[in-house]
Each structure stands twice: as C-alpha cells, then as structure tokens.
Amino acid sequence: MSETDVIWSNQFISDSKVSYEPLSRVVLTKIDANIFFNVLASHPFFTDVLIEVLNRNEELAELYAKQFQYELQDRILMLFEQLGTQISQQKFILPKGLNAYYIAAYCGVSRVSANRVLRELKEIKLIEKNSKGILIFRK
C-alpha cells in the first residue's frame, strides 16, 4: 500500500473486533461517517479524490483476484514485487515483519505451504537475508 491508499471499513456493530496489522509504516485515522459525508458535500474536489481512491481499491481487488490463476511461488514473487522497495534493477528490500503468516493469508494458503515456497526461494537464492537481517528479493 502507498501513502495515498485508504482502507474502507464499515463497522455497524460497535463491539466488533476488527484488527489491521501494517507491514510498513502507516497512519491510521478513524473518521466518523457523519463528518465524512459533511466534508464530501461541502468540498467538490473531495469527490474527485474519493473516486480516485475507489478506483485504486478496485484495481487492488482485481489484482488480488487475478493472483489465483498463478502457481503459489509466482503469487509470492508478485507479492514481493508489490510490497518491496526497489533498490536496484533486480533487487528489492522486503518490509520488516513480512513473514509466512502474512504471505499465507494473502495467498490463501497454509503457513506450511508458504514456508515451503520460501525455503525453495532461499535455495535458489531469490530471497536472502543480508548481514543486517534485512530480507532481500532478487528478481
């Protein structure tokens, strides 16, 4: 996710337990629906921003849905490209905290399956930890 991405969460039940766990630095802002709609009604440009955000969310949903046509290893590599910070033409630094739990959840598989693929990627040297413990992905 980038700094312009928005997570829409409709919580109609006040005691519902919804948890968001960031994989990188984020700022979470909770906005009351009434305030949101008042701002939307009073600032015409805000509608344009809202439409852009909704389009971006739709693109991300489509990307997520399309991933299931690929093998697990390819899905994980696509995830690394999305989340990684490119440091050279072929190298990406992966976010701290990105582990088999989150990879499995994103890919819709078990942690065991995600770990198996991560081991395979380490064996063929597509991912490795550097001396500072930072996970690096080679494209």
Automatic annotation (TrEMBL):
It comes from the Bacteria. GO terms for molecular function: DNA binding. InterPro entries: HTH_CRP, RmlC-like_jellyroll, WH_DNA-bd_sf. GO terms for biological process: regulation of DNA-templated transcription. Residues 98-136 form the HTH crp-type domain. This is HTH crp-type domain-containing protein.
